[in-house]
TrEMBL record:
Pfam families: EGF_CA (PF07645), GUB_WAK_bind (PF13947), PK_Tyr_Ser-Thr (PF07714)
Subcellular locations according to the entry: Membrane
Regions that span the bilayer: 316-339
Catalytic activity, reaction form: L-seryl-[protein] + ATP = O-phospho-L-seryl-[protein] + ADP + H(+); L-threonyl-[protein] + ATP = O-phospho-L-threonyl-[protein] + ADP + H(+)
Protein name per Swiss-Prot or TrEMBL: Wall-associated receptor kinase-like protein
Signal sequence residues: 1-21
Species name: Quillaja saponaria
Membrane topology field: Single-pass type I membrane protein
Cellular component per GO, a single term: plasma membrane
Protein kinase domain sequence ranges: 389-671
Length: 718
């Protein structure tokens, strides 16, 4: 009998398929059958229904039963976990009985589509003094493996060998991971008995494409793990990736919607619950529980569920009832808040109509082309701007209301005046005043930006002037002495210009009615801005005076207005005269801390002028040899403003012009500005009695008359 040398090769290749196109519409080929072998997608025995050509197999129908073929290799099993089992030819090289050497090398493979499974295969060589080896192409390079078997002449016959393939007559070696493109198998031998097997099982690993999951996901057109409840995992043997169903789901992850939830409760091996009754299936998982009236968690680890005691049942009843009450309370609270919110909206609408919102909207709609339109603010907007009218944002208070600093959503800083009362009979006039005042555009008048009519008393919104008031500026003991006469003159001239504008240049004359240093604001450059029009009144063009209830601030009030209740532009002139005296003397308009003869600054100033003690009452820090003439001229202007009869007082326009003229002489002392020389000489002649021309011979009587008529409740206008 001739000697034989046989090399047994058991190898598995896994697919490293190029990523293919999206799943074709082959619903009838989702799971195919060839003989007794199931062919799941991405494999197919129908050409258009495989993922791509690497997964196209052939079903040989000429055999019985039909055989599934990969090339010339029979496929016996396919798993979606990335393995494919085949029957591989055994390569042999043997001497026949005639002594001739015969070779059969059927194991030659040349494909990049599969990778040899390093975990499911062994490379085996059978023979005496035999060396078997395997060459392959791996990772762009050649790779080889092999083993050597020896036979001792005294070794028992192979038929009585115990089957141990440890190098005596038989050797084996592991397949390195990632091997593919196997070229050829070869072995040599001295002697080997007959080996009957011509085919042996082999396992291939297969995967999708040659990219990792992370890279493949970026190419969404070719990525195949797109179904719900599907995940991607990188191949553990070579390149590419596999699709898997997420935990708790089963099916074909390569098909859209292929991964379906399975009921773990139907399989005792899939759950750890006490029984099917204690198991509840949920998407992708399950949960164990105890039946009603029992306690425990229903798992095998924690043992059986136990019956609850009556006390426990009562406890749960109490918990349930309490929960119900809480839910009822939450529901009632929600309904209450909804009703409250609706009532609030209705109340806002009521106030809006009551405060003339409809009239104002009509007025504004007629002026759509104007950039100076007043804006109607929402109550919530101003509430948010003032942090719900926080006391820390109050910047002024007075008889007419409280002023808050506010921050609008567009980052503008504004002053929001919250009035105390509103006269419903004067709503239409109030709306007209808002419209007119919003159109005032003068650098020395605080700009009215708009109003809010959704509150019981309307809110007014002004531009914010950030440097305090003239009152604070000249009566602050730490800074008053540092305020130069030049600055005081500029403040006086700017204030006079603003009042002159209101009286004569506005679309409808406006009488401020509460002119005082506390209502003259200063911006960052100490520019004067007349503010607080809460007591102001519009004067129809065909009227020169109005009959109104006396309002204003004691110390600044026009005596004639107090006596007659007839409001004219000259009432503002009188108040401005008091402002001039404050700037000259640095004293407050009214102070009960001073002797009785000095309490009213206006009366005291007139008395000092009459007695030629002018420079005794002026602020000491402003007097010097260079400005004495100017001080005397401004003092004469103040005296003219304080005349008892309004008709004898100058107009604000005259005052503005004369103050600017005095300032000009300060800037240009060589200019001989004497626009009213006759008036000046007349006033100098009246130094002994400045009220002679007014028909007044008793200054004390006039002062007493003033005191006796202060019977109305007046405010400070802040």
């Amino acid at each position: 009998m001739g000697e034989q040398i046989i090399l047994l090769l058991v190898i598995v290749l896994a697919t490293v398929a190029s990523a293919g196109a999206l799943v074709p519409d082959c619903s009838d080929h989702k799971l195919q059958l060839c003989g007794d072998v199931q062919v799941p997608y991405p494999f197919s025995i129908t050409e258009p229904c495989s993922l791509n050509s690497d997964f196209l197999l052939n079903c040989n129908t000429s055999t019985t039963p039909n055989t599934l073929m990969l090339g010339n290799l029979q496929v016996t099993n396919i798993t979606l976990q990335g393995q494919l089992k085949i029957q591989m030819f055994v390569a042999r090289k043997c001497y026949n009985q005639s002594g001739d050497l015969e070779s059969q090398v059927f194991a030659e493979l040349q494909t990049a589509s599969y990778t040899v499974s390093s975990t499911e295969n062994k490379f085996v060589a059978v023979g005496c003094d035999t060396y078997g080896y395997l060459n392959s192409f791996q990772d762009n390079g050649n790779s080889s493996t092999g083993c050597l078997s020896r036979c001792n002449r005294n070794t028992p016959d192979l038929e009585t060998n115990n089957g141990d393939c440890s190098g005596i007559g038989c050797c084996q070696v592991d397949i390195p991971p990632g091997m593919n493109n196997i070229n050829w198998f070869k072995y040599s031998y001295d002697n080997l008995k007959f080996l009957p097997d011509n085919m042996v099982p082999m396992v291939f690993d297969w995967a999708i494409g040659d990219e990792t999951c992370e890279i493949a996901k970026q190419n969404t057109a070719n990525y195949v793990c797109t179904g719900p409840n599907t995940k991607c995992s990188n191949s553990t043997n070579g390149s590419g990736y596999l699709c898997e169903c997420k935990e708790g789901f089963e099916g074909n992850p390569y098909l859209p919607g292929g991964c379906q939830d399975f009921n773990e409760c139907q399989d005792d091996t899939k759950n750890n619950c006490l029984s099917k009754e204690n198991c509840r299936n949920i998407a992708g998982s399950y949960e164990c529980f105890c039946l009603l009236g029992q306690y425990g968690n229903g798992t095998k680890e924690d043992g059986p569920c136990e019956q609850k005691k009556k006390k426990d049942i009562l406890k749960w009843i109490i918990v349930g009832v309490s929960t119900g009450f809480v839910a009822l309370f939450v529901c009632i609270s929600w309904i209450y808040l909804v009703i409250k919110q609706r009532n609030l909206i209705k109340l806002k609408e009521k106030f809006f109509r009551q405060n003339g919102g409809i009239i104002l909207q009509q007025q504004l709609s007629r002026q759509e082309g104007s950039s100076e339109n007043a804006r109607i603010f929402a109550a919530e907007e101003l509430k948010k701007a003032t942090q719900n009218y926080d006391e820390s944002l109050i910047i002024g208070t007075g008889g007419f209301g409280t002023v808050y600093k506010g921050f609008l959503a567009d980052n503008r800083v504004v002053a929001i005046k919250k009035s105390k009362i509103v006269d419903q009979s004067q709503i239409e006039q109030f709306i007209n005043e808002v419209v007119v005042l919003s159109q005032i555009n003068h650098r020395n008048v605080v700009k009215l930006l708009g109003c809010c009519l959704e509150t019981e008393v309307p809110l007014l919104v002004y531009e914010f002037v950030n440097n305090g008031t003239v009152f604070d500026y000249i009566h602050n003991e730490s800074t008053a002495s540092d305020i130069s006469w030049k600055t005081r003159m500029r403040i006086a001239a700017e204030t006079a210009g603003a009042l002159s504008y209101l009286h004569s240049a506005a679309s409808m004359p406006i009488i401020h009615r509460d002119v005082k240093t506390a209502n003259i604001l200063l911006d960052q450059s100490y520019t004067a801005k007349v503010s607080d029009f809460g007591a102001s009144r519009l004067v129809p063009i065909d009227q020169t005076e109005l009959a109104t209830m006396v309002q204003g601030t004691v110390g600044y009030l026009d005596p004639e207005y107090m006596l007659t209740s007839q409001l004219t532009e000259k009432s503002d002139v009188y108040s401005f005269g008091v402002v001039l005296v404050e700037l000259l003397t640095g004293r407050k308009a009214l102070s009960f801390d001073r002797p009785e003869a000095e309490r009213s600054l206006a009366m005291y100033f007139i008395s000092s002028w009459k007695e030629d003690h002018l420079f005794d009452v002026l602020e000491s820090g402003i007097v010097n040899e260079e400005n004495m003439d100017q001080l005397r001229e401004v003092a004469m202007l103040a005296i003219r403003c304080l005349r008892m009869k309004g008709e004898e007082r100058p107009s604000m326009k005259e005052l503005a012009m004369e103050l600017e003229g005095i300032r000009m002489t300060e800037k240009h002392p060589w200019v001989n500005f004497d626009s009213n020389q006759e008036e000046t000489e007349h006033l100098l002649a009246l130094a002994s009695n400045p009220f002679k021309s007014a028909g007044t011979s008793n200054i004390t009587a006039e002062y007493d008359s003033l005191r006796n008529h202060v019977i109305l409740s007046v405010d400070d206008g802040r």
